[in-house]
Every structure is written in structure tokens, then in C-alpha cells.
Amino acid sequence: MTGETHNRSIKRLAVFCGASNGARPDYPEGAKAVGRELARRGITLIYGGGRAGLMGAVADATLEGHGRVVGVITKLLESRELGHNAITELHIVETMHERKMMMATMADAFIVLPGGLGTLDEMFEILAWAQLGIHAKPVGLLNTCGYYDQLWKFMDQVEKENFLRLNHRTAVMMDADASKLIDKLANA
Length: 188
What we know:
Elements: E1 12-16, H1 26-41, E2 44-47, H2 53-64, E3 69-74, H3 75-79, E4 89-93, H4 96-106, E5 109-112, H5 117-131, E6 139-142, H6 149-160, E7 172-175, H7 178-186
Parallel strand pairs: 1-2, 1-5, 2-3, 3-4, 5-6, 6-7
Helix pairs in contact: 1-2
């Protein structure tokens, strides 16, 4: 599939990612590819509202493609001048939980880019909400440079040990190519 018969159901996509660029130049390039693809498809980016690292890269690439970018940031992070002041819309909330809930509510699907503990927290919370039936939105991992290979193996172990219910292991999609991953989410 080329992406041309895309996203009839995905109008807003939440991206969870690091506020750092990581150790490899491929990470910001992957984030930019996601942003360009969202802009090309007319999908609104919902993200953490930051201007640094992969967050800034995905937002800037979406904006450069004339796409719409909606950020959600906490007052604490905004007070540290970490917010992106050139995006389409910026929501400032009190807590990280409120931030995640607002992003999840606004989004039709989720992509997780490489990132650290905050990114993993966001990913696992969204997956737990899916398992609990709080949402039925597709989740994808952008596996830049094999970043999520070990996590994928761990998820296999979690499933094998019967700690993953309702076949949620197969509901998580993964690809190293932004366009292919968005296609998978659109066809989920």
C-alpha cells in the first residue's frame, strides 16, 4: 500500500517521543519523516508541545509541510521555556497525567518514536488503557535503527508468560518506515 488510500479514520495522530535527539542522527531523521508524512496526508500532529529533541523535529517537519500541530505541555515544562511557540495550538495543563489524557482523547491513533523513560511511560500507559478497554485506538512503534527490537522481544516474553491479555500483543504495530507504519495504523 502506498499511503494514497489512507487515513479515512485517522485525522489526528499522537506522537510520543524524546525531548532529546538521541545518540544517532537517524532518530531526528525518523521524527522528521513522520512529520512530513503527517503533513502530506493532512493528519494533525498531537504531541507533547516541546521544541527540543525529537519532539521539536517532528513538530517542525509537520509545520514545514504546512501541517497542523497541536501541543500539550505542563505549566512546569512551559515555565522552563521548553514549549514550542510556533505551533498551531498549544494547551498548557497542570499535570503529566492531564497531559497524557488530553493527548489520548484528541488522538485517533498513536506512534511511539525512540525516547527515554517519559516516552516509555506514555507508551505503556496507552497500551494499558487499550488492554483495559479505555480506548480501541491503534498503536505503532517507529523502530528507527532497531530501537525497539529488545522491547519487542520483551513483549513476546510478557505474552508467553500470560501477562498480556486479550491478544493485545498483536495490536501493537511496528515498522522502521514512517509511511508504512501510518498505513498500518490507518488499516488497523
